[in-house]
Amino acid sequence: MNFGEWEMTPWNEIPKAAYDAWVADFAHARFGGVESTQCVIARVAEALDDCVATQNEEMIWVTHAGVIRAAHYVASFGHRTIRDVSEWPAHAPMPGHHVLLNL
Could you give the CA distance from residue 38 to residue 62 in angstroms, rounded to a whole number? Predict the structure, then answer.
């Protein structure tokens, strides 16, 4: 996710009001002014669809936690709009670890 003005800023340095506004409209708020959670979900869903359509075997993605969480969301809920922050997967693998998704 492109966090715009908050990119590379530690979470504890982001004003609570900015964080609260994002959580209040988790699907559509553009945290940092650039990309919403739903934009990330749509981008990841499209990439997953493309991979599934062109591959007949397992694939490996090397990525960061945001994409992993979006892929988990798509695997669980499909392409629908995320309702609120409670649907966003809370856990992602630790650095260097992996997760297996069946799509």
Answer: 21
- Predicted confidence at residue 89, as pLDDT, reads 94
Residue 33: partners with Cβ closer than 8 Å, 6 or more residues away:
4, 5
The mean pLDDT values, 10 residues at a time, for the chain of 103 residues are 94 95 96 96 93 78 91 93 94 86 79
Helix H or strand E encompassing 19: helix 16-24
Asked if residues 52 and 103 have their Cβ atoms less than 8 Å apart, the reply is yes
Listed in sequence order, the residues at least 6 apart from 61 whose beta carbon sits closer than 8 Å to its beta carbon are 67, 71
Residue 27's contacts (CB-CB under 8 Å, 6 or more residues apart) are: 36, 37, 38, 81, 82, 83, 84
Give the model's pLDDT for residue 56.
65
Q: Residue 71, exposed/middle/buried by CB under 10 A (0-12, 13-18, 19+)?
A: buried
d(CA 2, CA 50): 22
